[in-house]
Amino acid sequence: MQQVSAPSQSAAAKNAALLVSHILSPIILGTLLLALSPLRDASISWAGAIVAALFTTVIPWLLLVMAKLRGRVTDLHVTVRRQRHGIYAMTSGLILGGLLVLWLMDAGAGIFREVLCMLLGLLVVAIINIWWKVSVHLAVGTYAILQVAGQSPQLTPWLLLFIAVLSWSRIRSFQHTATQVCGGVAVGVAIHYAHEAMALVLY
Q1: Cβ 159 vs Cβ 149: under 8 Å
Q2: Average per-residue pLDDT in the chain?
Q3: 31: how many CB neighbours lie within 10 A of its CB?
């Protein structure tokens, strides 16, 4: 039987981790969370959900792709910390524009809370990024899975498994340290509870 060398196993594990990172990227999770929000909240219209997704994730991602093609960022995950500042500023501006459009549409409080929490999470990560690199994958991933499954105790094992797999992917692909991953999880949890608090005043 042919034995697989340790370097080959290591490379395979890294490739698998990168694949998971791409599939569970912030752009994909954030877009799905917003675009499918009417399935979780009947007060949210599909038109409002699509507009929210366009301004919060889709258009920023398209601009990020352009930045990558022009050599302004090294990769689509923006793993170089100093390159994140401009991306955060641009995305914040677009989200504010999206909130204005939603207001003009009279889209309702439900989708406003979703987008405001995305903006709040972005601002928290941007501030942390001034001194330190925190995992945006885990911040968005943790927030998304808590929004979807956080109110269902029977889904808790799947929730924990999701966070564990995503954490493994970022550490095993050598994009983040365990501390940076934990920081991302903490941000995601905090923003989830901020959403719960907003529900008391925005309804």
Answers
A1: yes
A2: 90
A3: 18
Q: Which two tokens stand for residue 34?
A: 């917003």
Tokens of 41: 């909240």
Q: List, as one string, the DSSP characters of 17-35.
A: HHHHHHHT-HHHHHHHHHH
Residue 145 and residue 15: Cα distance in Å, rounded?
Answer: 24
Q: Model confidence at 2, in pLDDT bands (50, 70, 90)?
A: very low
Tell me the C-alpha distance between 110 and 41, whole Å. Answer: 7
DSSP, res 195: H
Q: What is the pLDDT of residues 48-86, one digit of tens each?
A: 999 999 999 999 999 999 988 888 888 777 777 778 888
- Letter for the amino acid at 93? G
Taking alpha carbons only, the member of 169, 117, 111, 116 closest to residue 138 is 169
Nearest-10 Cα torsion for 163, 125, 34, 173: -40
pTM for this prediction: 0.88
